[in-house]
Description:
The chain is built from 22 helices and 12 strands.
Amino acid sequence: MDYKDLIATNISKITGLDKDKVYSLIEIPPQLEMGDYAFPCFTLAKELRKAPPMIAADIAADPSLTTGALTVKNVGPYVNFYVDREVLAQEVITEIISAGDKYGTDDLGGGKNVIVEYSSPNIAKPFHVGHAFTTILGNSIANIYTKLGYNVIRFNHLGDYGTQFGKLITAYRLWGDEAAMEEDAITELTRIYVKFHDEAKKDPSLEDTARDNFRKLEEGCEEEVALWKRFRELSLAVFEKTYQRMGVKFDNYNGESFYSSRIPPVVDLLRDKGLLTESEGAQVVMLEDEGLPPCIILKSDGTTIYASRDLAAAIYRHENFDFYKNIYVVGLPQQLHFKQVFAVLKKAGFDFADDCVHVGFGLLKFKDGSAFSTREGNIVLLDDLLNKTVEKTEEIIRKNAEERGDDMTEDEIKDIAEKVGIGAVIYTYLKSGREKDILFDWDDMLDFEGDTAPYLIYTYARIRSILRKAEGLGLGASSGDSLKLLAGDEEYAVIRSLSDFKDSVRRAASSYEPFVVAKQVALIARNFNRFYNNSSILNADSEDIKRARLALCVAVADTLKSGLGLLGINVVEKM
């Protein structure tokens, strides 16, 4: 039973408020004694011209709210709802055990296409830790929408076009080292790209040369196109290895270059609609009525810009995928850019602009607060970060295994370290709101007692160990009336957090915030460990209680696996 949905339905009938609005207002009280759900009546005060406590009392007195396992009380301006503990324990645990690690799956998005664009690295530049934010965040958002039944198409909109390639072609011709290219292409391309910007500060004419080379590339000149293709192929081969390691996949690799030939029709369309205006030699769309600066479509030299390519891409996607949502997982600094692109689409008569969403995110910073920048040469490669984190994790796993006397093989230790280490990196990006900047710290990432992936994965592994021991003793999880025995405060806190998991998945999707799932998974783990530390499972007072608590263990393990999977994190069976 979805009690939150039931409560929202009933309050909607009583008050006349939109059900979705009611649903969004329902809160989870901070303490169990305050109930399982609470509806604040502040928003009704103006409409009903009553004090919120009086409104709450009137709503709580309506007999239609007290149905089945629900009881109702009003406390000040809140209507509090209490679910019968025995009923909830049976319903939640039975549902989770039946679903397994598919718990949280829904058919909410059946028949609807959702495009998620993420990662989108720049060709010929290294995949650095700052750029990992879009990759990890986008992958999780795609997982969450898939969980809710949407047909998700994962786009990697490669940065494989633009004036930077004019700069790179120029730099390669001036300072490129072919031997270095053969040995480590990305490092060499990065070196000459950084050198270009250093030299251009002293010799501005290099920028003119770069613009000319990009123009030749757009015109299809053989030599420039051949260099561009080589840079692209070498870069993709490197990126793909990192993606495979992180469990990240894509359905579509159409980069900026793919849309180049589709830009002229877009320019013609905007011109035919009378939207193009010349400004200092450039072709722009004025957006004063939207409170936005003009959107440049063609620069003064006739070359394209990000906006023109994104317009062509959005139109192509709608024509070919008829999307329900077109989600761009791109950093917050690009917020204005996407507002302009969506506004131009709307002006051009494309109503699907309302279904395009920019999901912004913050920065990854060093401890001194500085951000990462390829142009300044101040970068940390993602592969280096992953390698170092896995190495540090392996040291911890090996030490713990030796202290416990575990006889794990070298392959087991390395496999566990790889999954836990990469999980630690992923969780660091997702555990807080996406718009917050991340301050990188290895000690925080690998803390087995803190809000970290190692803590969550260890909780899962601990439960799996308990279940293996129980199997050795001939004990199995209950699936019957004995689940009603799970009514103690600590047991119920676990069940309560398990029951809210499905709602956390829906809220994460609607807000494009995987941290909502991360927060719920962390709450489940904390509640379980509190219960585990204060209650006996295999040595409980009766067989019925043992089996009921084992069922609770199974439910928690399945939910942790489901939730961590949505974040892109793998679990391990032992640590």
